[in-house]
Structure formats: structure tokens, C-alpha cells
Automatic annotation (TrEMBL):
The keyword Cell cycle does not apply. The keyword Ribonucleoprotein does not apply. InterPro entries: ExbB/TolQ_transport, MotA_ExbB_proton_chnl. This is TolQ protein. Pfam families: MotA_ExbB (PF01618). It comes from the Bacteria. Keywords: Cell membrane, Membrane, Protein transport, Transmembrane, Transmembrane helix, Transport. Residues 100-202 form the MotA/TolQ/ExbB proton channel domain. Belongs to the exbB/tolQ family. It is found in: Cell membrane; Membrane. The chain crosses the membrane at residues 26-46, 128-149, 169-191. It is a multi-pass membrane protein.
Amino acid sequence: MDPTSAPAEVAHDFSFIGLFLQADPIVKGVMILLVIASIACWTVVFEKIVRISAAKRQAKAFDALVRSGGALESSGGGIDAHITGAAVEAWRDQDATETRAERRDRIERAMRAALTGRIKRLQTGLPLLATSGSTAPFIGLFGTVWGIMNSFSSIAKSQDTSLAVVAPGIAEALFATAIGLIVAIPAVMAYNKLINDVGRVQSSFVSSIGILGNRLARDRAVHGRAAAAE
């Protein structure tokens, strides 16, 4: 055999696509799984950014309405409309035997229940980010371990410990770990940011609910005294 042909035989494509195409089927499957997880995570991130931004605007509008003492509107599909609808329904459910404190507590419970349901919808998909962030590095590590095992197997078969024999398999293996980190790091950062934003939205609504509950309980007391006087 012509010695000059040896480099061509051991030539290896170290580009990203080359590393993927030349990888072991198991390692290749790990890479595909991680890429799918990354696409799913980014889909959740962009969807949550849009929905949480809308929820922040609704919380701001709801707070302004409550503090201004304006008329309550239960139309629309936003969080504020659902809370307002629950508040109005609880306010109309008159019980002459309950005290003002009991009335306020009942109205606030109704509003918090409506808020909880909407907050759970905002949180849908966030567990995927947490799961991907915690498991993706280990999935990538599994691909790395498998690839390195194949590299050692190649060394044993060829009885050649040169870098030309070892490097390709190790490069493919480490590429799986790199993809795992690329999936995990943004997922963890996005999860922390989004869960914090959801918490702020919830806190804003809870604060406004306390003000509105007191206002509606007071209004019911006024209406009750007026009805008794008549």
C-alpha cells in the first residue's frame, strides 16, 4: 500500500454536521433527542414570553382599575376579566347573616380561585424547561461515555493508540456533551426568569384582589344598610 494514501484513510470531518453523520447510531440518537428537546424548550420560551407580557399588562390595568374605583367589567378573556367576573358573582351572592369580614373573605377566595386557575395555565410548559435543564447534561454525558467506549474498542481492534485513531470517536462523544449543555443552560436560565415573572404577576393580582375585596365588602354593607332602611 502506498504510504501517501494513509492520511486519506484516516481523514475525518470535524465539522458539526460531519461529527453527527459519522457518529455511532446510539450517539446520533442522543444528539437527535437533545436537538428535539432544544426546539421544544425554545418553543415554550417564546410562547411564555408572549403570554406573560400580556398578563403583566392585564395586571397593571387591573391594579389601575381597582385603585381608581372604576366600574368592574367581566368581559374579555384575560386574567383580569376572569377575576372580575368571579368578584361580581361573589358580590351578588348576598347572605344577610355574614359579617363584613366574612363577606370580604368569601369574595377574595372567589377571586383567588379564579387567579389560581389562570396562573396554572401560565405555568404550563415550564416543567419542560426544568426537566430539560436538569437532564440534558446527563443525556449528553451518556452519549459521551458511549462514544468513548467505542473509541477504546477501536483502539483494541487496531492495536494503535495514535491520536488519529482516538480523536474522531472522542470528538463525536464530546460533541454530544456540548449539545447537552447547549440545551440545559438556556433552559435553566429561561425557567428561572419565567417562573420569577409569573410570581410577580401573581403577586400583583393578589395585592389588587385585597383592595378590591375590601371595597366590595364595604359596598355590600352599604347596600345592606340601605335595604334595611327601606
